[in-house]
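Form 7-S
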Amino acid sequence: MAGRLARPTVLLACVFLLQSFHHGAVFSQTVDEVANNINTNLITPYLSASGGKVDLVFVVDQSAFSAEKTNRGFLYMINFVKEVLSGFTVDSEHTRVAVITFSREATVEINDLDSRQETKCTVFSRLDDLRAEVPKHPGLTATTGALRAAREVLTESRSDAKKAVILITDSYSTIGPPPEVASRELRSLRWTGWDSNQGPQLEVFAVGVSGADENELESVVSSSPNNVFNIDSFSSLRRVSKLIHQVPDNSSWEVTHPSFCTPCDSSASCACDTGLGQYHCICNAGYHGDGTTCQACSADTYKDSTGPGICTACPENSASPTGATSVEHCTCAEGYEGPSGGPCTEVLCPALPAVLHATSFHIYSP
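Output:
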């Protein structure tokens, strides 16, 4: 949902500060060093958050601060956001995302705090639409207002999720009080139930591109100098984005409208891979295949979920009909007994009473 400041709902705030020129700009790191620092100080700690619960809020400078920014720079900034998200599973149970843009005022472009309906596919699709927009309002940069918008959306975020605000800018603040005032307000937020042994629940990061004021960036992240990432140009930002790309360890499938996929098999559904952020046709429970063609699981096998997996063999000594959708459909074969889904044990004759000077034995018959 897009909205103005009156619409404050974001889980994790990611603020990117990109500035074209300013006397405080200092760039001493190589592209490889910046990418390594982003992975070490931002991406890796959040990927390892307890239960995978992460709230990310990206605050992206959309002011027309330079010709390069207007031409391709803003597109590279949005691509950077997508690459930060590349390793995260974006769904209601794991990573939730908010995106705020700002020039002379702040706009909440994406906010999954209250609806909890975004997937990685929908977030990426909306980011693709956003990067096509042209930066506006030269020289007008409401960084403070954008950080305050991030604070407003974070007030409604999950109490047990680790949170990050990432500011991206190629310009320094020109409207309102200094950004450090808004950052202090932001970092004063507290949530009940957070285990302090897991470290700080909320951190603010700043990415400065092409001349951002390092002093201003450091004031935004306060006492965390490792949370500032300086990049000397938009072309370098593009290279950093490629270096931080990751493949998620886990994915889930969110079934969606069929129009997002090429025609699927009648026994398949269109779904979003919440790890990769891509739509695919996937076979329904009880069926296997590539999604465009699905076949029923053969007898004595089952598949209990909608997804790209294969059919699983029934437990030993049990059988199922074709198209079985649960291990519970595997019932013990003749001559065996046990619950549906196994284990199945051989049916034996009741023990005979002991007979003096005699031996008992079983005779097996097919």
